[in-house]
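Entry type: protein chain
Record version: 2
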Amino acid sequence: EFIKGTLEFTKTDLVSGEVIPNVKLEIYTEKDELIFSGLTDKNGKIIIEELKVGKYYIVETDPVEGYVLNEEKVYFEIKENGEVVKAEMTNKKITSTIIIHKLNDSNEVLSGVVIGIYDLDNNLIGEYTTDENGNIEVNLDYGKYYYQEISTIENHILNTEKVYFEVNIDGEIIESTLINILEEVEVPSTNLDKNYLVYILIFSTGLLGLGLIIYDKKNKK
């Protein structure tokens, strides 16, 4: 009989180490002959029994949604009868960077504004504060999100808009700008009310007229 062994292959997340099911893989002999094509199971595994003695390699052909295709070849070899050869491959999640610019309606940068980033189930991913340049920079995994202002700075109106965005291209820089409107501040007037001045003028004129009448009567006497 030919010497035969078993391959136990596992697909895992590069960072978390969690297994990844439904990854499509192909296995070739060292002479580039295809001997297997299929998906990892619910445990992130592919198990192939009764592989003949020899050298082989595994390639990924279709990653799971949200992951970057791993283009490396994973080599393994069956040397002894009945041996179990273990091999594994990792996948990196798609990640992007969002940069939020915070300005007011006078085009001035705003530092100290607190912004929250949420998933579409309204779970808060994190709270972030704009820096001295009015910016927030956050790295996020594949998915759909929105951000919203939590608190603003003095003399500015809170912007309650929800800004939606999506992370679906690895390494992408997503830039977005959120504007705050300056509050209208009432400046105390240094001048007397116009109506008040009119009243004073009328009153003064009346007094002047009355004084002239009294003066005229005295002269006649």
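Comment: The longest strand covers residues 4-13.
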